[in-house]
Design brief:
Blueprint (H helix, E strand, L loop, with lengths): L1 H6 L3 H17 L4 E12 L2 E7 L4 H5 L7 E5 L7 E4 L4 H7 L1 E7 L5 H6 L6 E4 L20 E7 L3 H10 L8 E8 L11 H6 L2 E7 L9 E2 L2 H8 L8 E6 L2 H13 L7 E2 L3
Parallel strand pairs: 7-8, 7-11, 8-9, 9-10, 11-12
Antiparallel strand pairs: 1-2, 1-6, 2-5, 3-4, 3-6
């Protein structure tokens, strides 16, 4: 009977039920007040946000794998944001901070967050998600090639992965295809040298480059499709984070070239 009644609810009633369910779910989350340590520009429309979790040891210790995320809520703002943690777990353990790369979108909670400053208090949910399970592409001697794809702020958990270390020095081919609109929209350029020193080859890809750009242009999936550099698919792993279309098309290319689907890691 309940199913029949629900089927005949008008759109306004159905929307009200969905909102009520979302509110009930939020009410069950244990929120932890934490102070902001720093907010500074990372690139055009992107901000580094650092949050002090030194008074929340249980929250800090629950972050164990690159790729995990949490919800962040600003007091008196109803809608929280889902944010992937950019700093590696080791940095949280050492410095008691969470670092995020946040895209400021007009009218969003993220925009309000990027306008806050040191000492302002936000609320964090428990750490969520399975993260990037690199056990699936281990040992490194058997999975010599790891292809990483990120677009926009999707580079955030990828930074955590690279700086956490996944035996890059024991692999022969680790590539990061990193897509952004242009050079001004590309975060973490100051980290590229260190990433490359660790053994990661970085391939920047710009969808709207200026006339001075001589590197790869277009979309990440198209650049990778043109490269056709899956040398040994049975010993290849991959990590994806970013736009849904990119993830779907890259997955299709990888699987079509013989990379096992279970070796393609995502954090959501």
């Amino acid at each position: 009977m309940a199913t029949i009644i629900r089927r005949h609810l008008n759109p306004i009633c159905r929307r009200s039920l969905a909102i009520s369910a979302a509110v009930r779910q939020q009410d069950t989350i244990p929120w932890t007040p934490t102070p902001i340590a720093d907010v500074k520009p990372a690139a055009e429309s992107l901000f580094h946000v650092t949050i002090d979790v030194s008074d929340s040891p249980d929250l800090a210790s629950s972050y164990t794998l690159a790729g995990q995320y949490l919800q962040l809520r600003i007091p008196n703002v109803e809608k929280p944001s889902f944010l992937a943690i950019a700093s590696p777990p080791s940095l949280t353990f050492t410095n008691c901070v969470f670092e995020f790369l946040v895209k400021s979108i007009a009218g969003s909670t993220a925009e309000l967050l990027c306008g806050l400053g040191k000492g302002d208090v936000v609320e964090l949910s428990p750490v969520m998600g399975k993260g990037f399970n690199t056990d699936q592409i281990s040992p490194p001697e058997e999975y010599r090639s790891v292809l990483i794809f990120a677009t926009g702020s999707g580079i955030s958990p990828v930074r955590s992965l690279i700086e956490s270390g996944f035996s890059v020095d024991k692999r022969s081919d680790v590539r990061l295809y990193y897509g952004a609109r242009n050079l001004q929209r590309m975060a973490y350029q100051d980290r590229f040298k260190a990433w490359e020193s660790s053994g990661v080859t970085i391939v920047p890809v710009f969808s709207q480059p200026d006339d001075s750009w001589v590197g790869e242009s277009g979309y990440v999936q198209a650049v990778f499709a043109r490269a056709k550099q899956v040398y040994a698919p049975e010993s290849t792993g991959s990590v994806l984070c970013g736009h849904r279309q990119m993830a779907e098309e890259v997955t299709s290319i990888l699987v079509g070239n013989g990379v096992p689907h279970e070796k393609i890691l995502k954090n959501f």
